[in-house]
From TrEMBL:
Name of this chain's protein: DNA-binding protein
Keyword Translocase tagged: no
Domain HTH cro/C1-type: 6-60
InterPro entries: Cro/C1-type_HTH, Lambda_DNA-bd_dom_sf, MLTR_LBD
UniProt cross-references to PANTHER family, sorted A to Z: BLL4672 PROTEIN-RELATED, BLL5781 PROTEIN
Gene Ontology molecular function, alphabetical: DNA binding
Key words, A-Z: DNA-binding
Claim: DNA-binding is one of the keywords in the record: yes
Highest taxon in the source lineage: Bacteria
Amino acid sequence: MVGGMLKQWRRLRGMSQLDLALSAEVSSRHVSFLESGRARPSAEMVRRLAEALAMPLRERNGLLVAAGFAPVFGDNDWTSPQMAEIRRAAGIILGAHDPSPALVLDAAFNVLEANSGAMALLGAGAPAAPSLNLVDLVFCPGPVRDGLVNWDEVALYLMHRMREGVRIRGPQSPLGAVMQRALAQPGVSQLGLGAHTNQGLVLLPVVFNAGGVETRWFTTVTSFGAPQDALAEEITIEQFYPA
């Protein structure tokens, strides 16, 4: 099982067995033996290969478990005591940014927290919950999609971010399922997903119309440095600024 996972991630990274061997400082023959199941890796070897493959922390834990070892990185829920510091830091950022919108997102664009400005912009009318997903709000028919004046541009930009996320985290990740859900929505097939758009733009504006009032925003994405927890590594804070 671990051999198949190694092969899948190596191919996802566009690496040959020799590429991986050189990066992990092992022989290509050993990589071949590991992928075929003829050899079993040590925990240290799994960590070296995962590092060479630039695997996210959650996927590194999965590779260790597949090889018969315990995970080494935390994998805590957003509401767990272990995430209290991250929640507190995120709360400071969201509170300081109000009344401009700000959201805390996980890797699959689930909304973990949102300030009052974000909830007013989204029109959700209730505290953010894991069931609220930014991709679904933008791509699925509803008030948020209807309110996006430049929906085509925003959808293309968000699809680019999802594709990059799937490249990093793998097609079997929760983000992969979210992206497939977005691709199935009406109008997405006509977006020209393979085309280069917005050339020459430094910032992509988000133009939103709510109740006949049009507002323009640009966004920044913040992440936490040097995390040792899978969820902490995945979290981003999306802040909207008046354009």
